[in-house]
Amino acid sequence: FVIGGSGGGGGGVRGRSGSVGFTTSATSTASAAFASSASTSASAASATDEVDDLSAVHGAASWVIELLLAPGSAEVRSEASSLVRHLAADGEQQRYAVLARLAAALPAACAAAAAASPLSTTAGSSAVSPAAAVAASVAAVTATAGGAAIADDYFDLLSAMLCDDSVARRFLVCRGALGVCVAELTKEAARLSEADRSGAADPDAGAVLGRLADLLTRLVEGRSGGDGGEEEEA
Length: 234
Description:
Layout: H1 6-68, H2 74-88, H3 92-104, H4 106-115, H5 118-121, H6 130-162, H7 166-174, H8 177-198, H9 207-224, H10 228-233
Helix pairs in contact: 1-2, 1-3, 2-6, 4-6, 4-8, 6-9, 7-9, 8-9
């Protein structure tokens, strides 16, 4: 490419200029490729961290909700409720992750209340001694109070997270919460009907049914309300 003689210098200069231009172009291309690769790697690392964070939130929420539904002291359930709120306040994605876990615990909350009802605790007690009957009655009252408290704490927390948040309601509807709520409401209505037929006294009869009806109303309103933009976000 370099031409000798008097014009060779000029030709040589042109040849070197072309070589420099080629080298610069190759360097720019390599730099751009490296930058693109680094950006892709950073994005992948960020996405991985985000997935790990959500997994941690799911795990923590599941553990705390177990405490919320545990038949322990009211102080433990109160602390569990505060922890759930704290987890949900850590960002939009974390909020919906916690809300999904909380809604998934609806059958467990209803089962806790149903298992503690007099209908469940006095079944098969017709052939017992008077002392055993008194003991069973005291245990039934205590268990009923505990079951009702668990249900109240759970529904209070769920209602607070859904209050004035139509997007959150539609989010749960999209995840099948409406069908679960209808199923639990049907089971609770059947349980109360059986209690009426058996003559079992339940001072809190209908309390869980009322909370389920209120939740159902909120979810139905969430499904039908709002505009398309909010629904797409949900």
